[in-house]
Design a protein that fits this description.
The complex is a heterodimer.
Chain A (H helix, E strand, L loop, with lengths): L1 E5 L2 E5 L2 H12 L5 H4 L9 H6 L4 H7 L1 E2 L5 E6 L6 H12 L4 E7 L4 E6 L6 H10 L5 E2 L2 H41 L4 H22 L1 H12 L6 H21 L6 H27 L10 E5 L5 E5 L8 E4 L8 E4 L3 E5 L1 H4 L5 E4 L3 E2 L4 E2 L4 E7 L5 H14 L9 H22 L4 H15 L1 H21 L2 E3 L5 H6 L2 E4 L1 H5 E12 L5 H13 L18 E6 L3 E6 L2 E7 L13 E7 L2 E12 L3 H10 L3 E5 L4 H11 L3 E3 L4 H9 L5 E4 L6 H6 L2 E5 L4 H6 L2 E3 L6 H35 L5 H24 L2
Parallel strand pairs in A: 18-25, 18-27, 25-26, 27-28, 28-29
Antiparallel strand pairs in A: 1-2, 3-4, 4-6, 4-7, 5-6, 8-9, 8-10, 10-16, 11-14, 11-16, 12-13, 12-15, 17-29, 19-24, 20-21, 21-22, 22-23, 23-24
Helix pairs in contact in A: 7-8, 7-11, 8-10, 8-11, 9-10, 10-11, 10-16, 11-16, 14-15, 15-25, 15-26, 16-25, 16-26, 25-26
Chain B lengths: L3 H24 L6 H7 L7 H17 L1
The chains are: A alpha+beta, B mainly alpha.
Chain lengths: 768, 65
């Protein structure tokens, strides 16, 4: 905390800048300013503000208590822009005593800190982040949503300025090019150059700002990231053009500079939009309840905010309600729908004193239960934690460009200096021009455009194919990985009951019997009912549900009942399926076999992937016999059943090569986050979607084939572009160094290589 | 050709106005939902069915009163 004595009282200040201002005002003998002023600046209240966050109740709610007594929290920091920010935040926090781990996430713009509460405090950590100039907020949806909106608006403004500026500058540039051929008047040429200089100012100083800020951050931490070559190319070309304009010598590149900015900003915007689209549209069909009925003694229950619940509290869970906390059942028995958690759609029956995990839905009538774990210690919190941790492992692919860029920039700079030094003794006037032409002719533009343009076109193309690409770095795995993992329920299969077959048992009309069965089932919330949705139900009277035993109803004085089939009634063809029987007092009428069916395109997709020599593995949380049945029908050799999220993660990590995971359940989130390439469905829960690299918007599994094909084309195009840039440079640089390339030729070469890279990327659009 | 000395500065004033207008449009949240704006143009304000529905709604309210 920074303080200064003003008017005999110690006053807090927001930053060293303000403290400097106070010192300076007082050193000038103008301290009475503080006496005269009418309105006071808002007072920073950091200390009181931060100490609130050390309150035990707050810590319990928003941090994860780890087994070794340490605490962990994830904070949203919207100002994290590039790898350098993550580096800075991590290093600064880690230098604290008591801070065990800090990891900043670039894509999500969040920071995870783990600390020992005996030594460090959350207040000091938050204060430190604040002093660095970052604003940490809790991960509440609202604030993050607003921050995203603001970020988008800012980028749109920059694109608007870049677009308007580029159009104007290019218009003038056309006049200059035409003028060059038709011997333009020197005065007019000079005038037009000045005009394009003025019009490029807003583009450079406002629109291109993110690249300069990013590059500055990179440089300050001695790191050559993607922004460095961009900023270098922009500033060199721009400054050279300004010098040329003022001195009336050489060439101007205002049009290239403006256009380059516009292209890169557009690419950034598309990437940003894809990311925000997922974050902004939560699909959780059933929002978690904000309050639960908590017992206040004497048999009364009162709605209490979920965040106020403590382990040990007695609560009531209404029918169909989802629990946001882990519970221990106090009622005798309950039927619980855990589809949101495991992807398995069959409800499970829970006995007294058993655990009900957060995210489960109560499928029976009102139950009473004791709170077991809350907040981040509850199952959902743990799962999210596991997913985040899995992601912490650096993917080598994410940084595969860095060494090339570093090497490239270093050699270009060295070569221009060599050129300058070489020519200086013999030809000082030309030395600068030659050195500049080396810089311009090699123009890192093409190099730094190669990957973003290809990604941009791919994002758009995949969007049209019904695939949302969230993380372009996953493309490499989609294209090359030969180890693909699939979840079973909801991924290879439809994830709901379907009728496999009907067997006649007594003398009855099949259609009529099915219609009665449909009439009985339609009244229930049990997932079995979904299997009869396509049959017109016969309305029955006195429909009664017998918990765990079936349904009964009356039609024309006859009582009909549905129950589980006995062994004799079963259709032996479907031994793994659930079979139910419709009966009257006179005897059984029909039995129906129900099971989760394969997706219609599963077979085709799996065969196509196997034809590419891809090793396929099923990772499922379901029972062994069912998983084996599916694996056999799809002819997949490796199938692992009864996997917990941790088991799935372990199996995936067992493979050292690049991996791809396809899954849809919340329990797949950690393994999706850990895979080099991951794919999920649009219907998946928020956490699952955010852990994935790509989302299939249409419920078709065969989209993964299109994804692989497109990814292969993309990596191929990127390689071509990089190869071209290197070949072009290998040819052009020696000429430029020997002074044989006049600046105008360098400009053409630079534009041509950028143009080649962009057209090459656009080619991705046309591949059918 | 001397006209360019007057016309180009004039176009720059127009550019400044365009920049100001764009800034205003972004600030007044006109660019917040890009997906929707694209399809807005496809929906007629005076769509026949829509007009009829409005009319019916009015009728119903009148009867209700």
């Amino acid at each position: 905390m920074i303080t200064r004595t003003i008017d005999q009282t110690e006053q807090p200040l927001c930053c060293h800048g303000c403290a400097g201002a106070v010192d300076w005002i007082q050193s000038q003998g103008l301290g009475s300013f503080y006496h005269y002023r009418e309105t006071k600046a808002p007072k920073p209240e950091q200390q009181t503000h931060w100490s609130l966050f050390d309150h035990p109740e707050f810590l319990e709610q928003h941090t994860i208590a780890l087994d070794d007594g340490n605490l962990e929290i994830e904070l949203s920091i919207p100002q994290i822009r590039c790898a350098a920010c993550t580096w800075l935040l991590e290093r600064v926090l880690q230098s604290n005593d008591g801070v065990i781990m800090s990891h900043a996430h670039l894509g999500r713009q969040t920071l995870t800190v783990r600390w020992d509460p005996q030594i460090a405090s959350l207040a000091s950590i938050l204060g430190q982040i604040d002093r660095l100039g970052y604003t940490a907020t809790l991960l509440t949806d609202e604030s993050a949503f607003q921050a995203r909106k603001k970020e988008r608006r800012q980028l749109i403004k920059r694109i608007g300025v870049a677009a308007l500026g580029t159009m104007q500058v290019m218009m003038v540039a056309t006049a200059l090019y035409v003028g060059e051929a038709s011997f333009i008047d020197a005065d007019q040429r000079h005038f037009l150059r000045w005009i394009s200089l003025v019009m490029s100012i807003p583009v450079m100083l406002y629109a291109a700002q993110p690249f300069f800020v990013g590059a500055w951050r990179n440089l300050r931490h001695r790191n050559l990231g993607m922004d460095v070559p961009v900023a270098l190319a922009l500033s060199l070309a721009w400054i050279a053009s300004i010098i040329a304009t003022i001195s009336e010598l050489g060439e101007v590149y205002f049009d290239s500079v403006a256009m380059f900015t516009l292209f890169l900003l557009t690419g950034r915007f598309l990437e940003l939009k894809a990311r925000h689209q997922v974050l902004d549209t939560p699909v959780e069909s059933r929002p978690m309840p904000m309050t639960l009925a908590k017992s206040c003694g004497d048999g009364q229950f009162e709605q209490t905010p979920v965040s106020m619940l403590r382990p040990g509290d007695l609560i009531q869970l209404a029918a169909g309600q989802q629990t946001p906390v882990d519970l221990t059942l106090i009622s005798d028995r309950a039927s619980v729908d855990t589809q949101a958690l495991t992807g398995e759609f069959e409800p499970i029956v829970v006995e007294r004193h058993a655990e009900i995990l957060a995210g489960s839905i109560n499928g029976s009538s009102v139950i009473e239960a004791k709170v077991l774990r809350v907040g981040k210690n509850a199952f959902l919190g743990r799962l999210e934690h596991l997913a985040r941790q899995a992601e912490t492992v650096e993917l080598p692919e994410a940084r595969w460009m860095d060494p090339l860029i570093r090497w490239f920039i270093a050699s270009v700079l060295t070569l221009s200096i060599i050129t300058f030094v070489f020519w200086w003794p013999t030809n000082p006037e030309q030395a600068f021009e030659y050195a500049l032409s080396v810089l311009v002719v090699t123009c890192p533009c093409a190099l730094s455009l190669a990957i973003p343009t290809a990604w941009t076109v791919t994002i758009r193309r995949l969007r049209r194919l019904g695939i949302l690409l969230l993380n372009p770095t996953h493309l490499l795995a989609f294209a090359r990985s030969n180890d693909w993992f699939f979840d079973k329920t909801g991924t290879l299969t439809e994830g709901r009951f379907q009728r496999l077959g009907v067997k006649q048992l007594g003398a009855t009309d099949m259609d009529q019997a099915l219609s009665i069965l449909s009439g009985l089932e339609q009244g229930t919330v049990h997932p079995i009912a979904k299997a009869f949705e396509d049959i017109v139900p016969t309305p029955l009277q006195q429909i009664t549900h017998l918990a765990g035993q079936g349904v009964s109803g009356v039609l024309n004085g006859t009582q009909y009942r549905v129950r589980q089939s006995t062994l004799e009634e079963m259709n032996p063809e479907f031994e793994h399926a659930l079979q139910i029987t419709l009966e009257t007092d006179e005897g059984a009428l029909i039995s129906v076999a129900l099971d989760d069916a394969l997706r219609p395109d599963a077979k085709h997709t799996i065969e196509a992937l196997q034809a590419m020599n891809i090793r396929l593995t099923i990772l499922s949380g379901d029972r062994e016999d069912r998983v084996q049945a599916i694996a056999q029908s799809l002819q997949i050799d490796h199938a692992l059943a009864q996997c917990r999220p941790e088991d799935k993660l372990r199996h995936l990590r067992h493979i050292s090569a690049s991996t791809v995971m396809v899954g849809d359940g919340l329990n797949d989130s950690p393994v999706l986050a850990a895979a080099n390439g991951s794919i999920t469905f649009a219907q998946a829960a928020d956490l699952t979607r955010l852990s994935a690299g790509a989302i299939l918007l249409s419920p078709e599994l065969k989209s993964v084939l299109k994804l692989r094909e497109t990814a292969q084309k993309t990596t191929q195009v990127i390689r071509q572009s990089l190869f071209w840039v290197l070949v072009y440079n290998a040819i052009a640089v020696p000429f430029a160094m020997s002074g044989w390339v006049p600046p105008w030729l360098a400009a053409i070469g630079m534009s041509a290589s950028s143009l080649f890279v962009i057209t090459n990327a656009l080619r991705l659009n046309r591949i059918s | 050709m001397n006209a360019i000395y007057a016309l180009i500065p004039l176009s720059m004033i127009l550019l400044a106005i365009a920049l100001w207008a764009f800034n205003w449009a972004v600030k007044s949240k006109q660019f917040d939902d890009l997906e929707r704006s694209g399809s807005d143009i496809l929906f007629d304000d005076d769509d026949e069915l829509h007009q009829r529905a409005i009319e019916e709604e009015r009728q119903r309210r009148r009867e209700h009163d």
